[in-house]
Amino acid sequence: MSMSQEARVLVIDDEPFSREYFERILQRTAGEVKAVATGKEGLNAFKESSFDLVILDIRLPDGDGIAFLRQIKEINRLTPVIMVTAYGTVDNAVQAMKIGAFDFLTKPFEEQEKVLITVKNATYQGRLERENLLLRNRLQGRALFPDIIGRSPAMQKVFEVVKKGAEVDSHVLIQGESGTGKELIARAIHAGSLRSRSSFLAVDCGTLPENLLETTLFGYERGAFTGAVKTTKGYFEEADGGTLFLDEIGEASPSLQLRLLRALQEKEIVRVGGTRAYPVDVRVVMATNKDLQAEVVKGSFRKDLFYRINVIRIELPPLWQRREDIPALTAHFIERYTARMKKPRKEIHPKALQRLVNHDWPGNVRELQNVIERLVALKVGDTISERDVMENLTVLGGDDGSDLTAHPYEKAKALFERRYIETLVERFHGDLGRASHYARVHPATLYRKVKQYQIQR
Which domains occur in the chain, in start order? Predict the structure, then answer.
């Protein structure tokens, strides 16, 4: 019997004999074995390093092995876990298998060869699942983000975090301005995960009244309120085994935040008007356009809930910070809407495209999408002109940026700088030498800023 020398095994067992047993039989075959005596030590080791297999005792001095199993699976769902149990706790081991354990070994241990076969099979399955996921992502390539266009460095960083986040089962917090595509990112995470065969359900916490939001998420028992004529499951139960996306979580009330915290901590919910707890296996992805850390400081968002959901954080850049993506986004939306409306293919004039690039897009990608849809719907000719763009930017309430205090400091500073340079370049008819002399900046600095903001000379 042999195993790959690259296999790494974590043993969590409070009995010295068990730890020594696994170290002795696995060090010759598994490559590396780390043995610890408590669940806390095991979790710390698991967070700090990657393992191909975890062997976990069902009874530990600092907690229930099943509870530690849930935490391990929350950190990385792909890592196989073998439970170790005495004969008297086999029922608990079977329960553990239902929530993700690969198999269980009973004390006193059976023949060494049988133990090694179980270890080998678990390690093989774990690697196979990881390889399948990686292969699927490679085959999908950009298909993992079918509706997300982004060649800019900022978006490439987002894609990398999304890919890594899809491979584990931790909760995700997506932060970004309205219209940046937070739900698309959440769907990409779900599509690339092992939960992709199960449901993806989305709820906007900012649009539903509190009582309706509560029943939507947690369901209700018959007779819980007027009109509750039958027991109804909520989204937590409907998304069991899948992903639940909670948009605008920053709008959730304190009482709803508490219910969400309990659901995430206990992995069970109680329906409105009921007393029975129902187990749920749901990965939660939350999104907000608020700075939740600042909301915690102000006391409007629970600190414990923030820590629970802020495991993997994805910051989506506003469109004005990734202007180099606007040409590709424009082409994508033109193609989409000409096909959807069954219209002839349309071209966009270079000056019209430059206007789109120079626009501030306070509504981000959603605003750009609406502009292109309107242009495709109303334009009679084959070429979208600069005048067409300007008219539709005005119609859709394009922000002229006159009130810079409407923006955060960094954005306001960038908007002012770009408009200042635009006016400077226009005043000196594109002569950067004269413009730089007037502005008292080095010509190279001005040239770099013109290039950075893609200002037409």
Answer: 8-137 (3.40.50.2300), 148-317 (3.40.50.300), 321-395 (1.10.8.60), 404-452 (1.10.10)
